[in-house]
Amino acid sequence: MPEVSIMPEPFRIGAVNVGQSVIIAWMVIAALIALMIIARVRINRFSGAPKGFQALCELIVGGAHDFAASRLGAEHAQSKAAAEIAAPAVLTLMVYVFMTTVIELFGLPPATDDINCTLALGLCAFIMVNVTAVRVKGIKGRALAWTKPMAGVAPIRILTDLITPFSMAVRLFANVLAGGVIMKLLYAVAPVLVPAALGAYFNVLHVAIQTFVFGLLPLMYIGEAVE
């Protein structure tokens, strides 16, 4: 039977246990930085008629803005401003979640299989939500949002906001863990009948769903904050 553990795998550098998920995250970040440097060099050569790599970049950036605008609503000035602020941050979180999870296809454990990683992502999303709300409505406007529809619900709404990063962390961690368990069971029961292509398809589809959900949830919270 396949063994599954919810405890983070250790990885020591000298006497310090930095954790395996941290090493995986560093590898992904290094790869993304290298890609961004290459993209930055290519941006200087962009022309008015997008094609190839330029078209791909514009498709990704435009898609992120459209995704944020469709969830927050572009018909109101505050919602439009929130979408402009949140879109780059949401795209960054989604790329990070996707890359640190889909790396499992290359035989490496996903960093999001560690609750510490998902908790850090949840805290980043929590900060993004509140920074966006303050920039759009100001500190006073953000505080007043907790009193709607009446002042008596303020403690409940504040508590709900404080729970947000933990709920996002547990949701992502549990879903990634469940996906890994399913794949281990499939290969344990039918290691020959289940081809590698099917496993790759399942992994990519599962990761894509988790990435979409993790990008959608902060936008929903921002929508509630800026109303």
Question: Summed up, what is this model?
Answer:
With 227 residues, the protein is an all-alpha fold. 74% of the residues lie in helices and 2% in strands. It has helices at residues 20-43, 53-72, 77-102, 115-145, 154-189, 196-226, and strands at residues 12-13, 16-17.
Q: Could you characterize what this model shows?
A:
Helix 2 packs across helix 3 and helix 4 packs parallel to helix 6 (196-226). The chain has helices at 20-43, 53-72, 77-102, 115-145, 154-189, 196-226; strands at 12-13, 16-17. Strands 1-2 form a two-stranded antiparallel sheet. The longest helix has 36 residues, at 154-189. By secondary structure, the chain is mostly helical.
What's the helical proportion of residues?
over 70%
Mean pLDDT: 82
Give the helix tally.
6
Rg, rounded, reads: 20 Å
Structural class: mainly alpha
- List segments where confidence is low: pLDDT < 50 over at least 5 consecutive residues: none
Question: Approximately how much beta-strand content do the residues carry?
Answer: under 5%
| Spatial ordering of strands, largest sheet | 1-2
